[in-house]
Amino acid sequence: MDVNRFRTHTLHDERILRILSAALEAVEPAKLVQDYLQKADLPKHKRAFLLGIGKAAEPMTLAAADSLTHFTDALVVTKYASSRTRERIAVIESGHPVPDARSLAAGRAALDFVSRLNEDDLLICLISGGGSALVTAPRQGVTLEEIQAKTSSLLASGAPIQEVNNLRRQLDRIKGGGLARATKAKIVSLILSDVIGNSLETIASGMTVDVARGTRVQNVIIGDLRRAAEIAKQKAAEEGFESGILDLAIQGEASEVGLKLAQRLKEERRKRRSPFCLIAGGETTVTIKGNGKGGRNQELALAAVDELSGVENAMLISLATDGDDGPTDAAGAVVNGETRQRAERIGMDASAYLSRNDAYHFFKPLNDLLKPGYTGTNVNDLLLLIGL
């Protein structure tokens, strides 16, 4: 991945740019799929079908198509599709993070696709985060509007993804193993995890997780945040940093987490030799109280601004690995000891922007929004605490 995609006003150290690039390349979904299929002993079958659902569905499915050239048909449901077209592969763009009419159509298409398969067929599912919203099939008596309202309410309240997806499983017949129950085919589901702890029931609401199917369903985690963090740690060491992993299960209110991480960075800056790079990750939440613009990674970074003010040679980076942080074109933001002073010189107060959840408009004039664009992967959020 081109390191310049991560460059900002504050983040221009080539070593750190290479660390970020290495971390995301480690969870590049196409390579993960290809590596698995090259070694896999797949169930015997007469025909093979591919079904990709999630933010990383397109590269995962295309990789599977390249590895299994004998496949019959493929369907991809994703948030952003490329302009590439492939024979035997249909692609649907759908709604996220709240399901919409496109999600309904995609849900029908997915169920139709799998329901026509038989016992001699093999269905390879390529599952990644975002799938819960991208396909929906409301249970009898439930409307799309009800699902939208309840999903929006939970997201705005700062509810963890486990709670959101638990609701989705209750309201939606494609979730909680519903996709598996809709087909007679053998299933191998290759999963890119965006969930802390890699809970199969939570990733894309567990569409292929169904104990009733027994050994006819195989669910395999092929990539996760741990893999990205380990490669980031290794790359940081190669670049001359003292490196380590702090915590890859960070949850909670983004603003509270940002403050705590800033305090930890200050502490580490006092006691460690430089340079160092400490890696953390997880998935925070934001309780929306204002009418600003931003995402959890930007809010986390904004909450660190005042605490890091004046701390020399320290930097905090918060990045959504899919390149998509909330309803913005940014993936996160970068903060160092000069961020507050730079903001004050143009009349911006970090606490005021934080109070109205307006991190995007705080970091934009500072040119410290991370904007790598669509990365093609999705394994939670990556956090770097750096001493230089």
N-to-C order of helices and strands: HHEHEEHEHHHHEEHEHEHHEEHHHEE
In what range is the share of β-strand residues? 15-25%
The first-to-last residue Cα distance is 24 Å
What is the CA-based Rg, rounded? 21 Å
CATH topology term of the largest domain: Rossmann fold
User: How does the major sheet shape up?
Assistant: 6 strands, parallel
Shape verdict: globular
Kindly state the mean pLDDT as a whole number?
Answer: 94
Q: Give the number of domains.
A: 2
CATH architecture heading of the largest domain: 3-Layer(aba) Sandwich
Give the % helix: 25-40%
Low-confidence stretches: none
CATH superfamily of the largest domain: Glycerate kinase, MOFRL-like N-terminal domain
Count of DSSP H/I helices: 15
- How many beta-strand elements? 12
Short description:
This protein has 388 residues and is α/β, with parallel strands linked by helices.
Properties at a glance:
388 residues; alpha/beta; glycerate kinase, domain 1; Rossmann fold; 2 domains; six-stranded parallel sheet; 15 helices
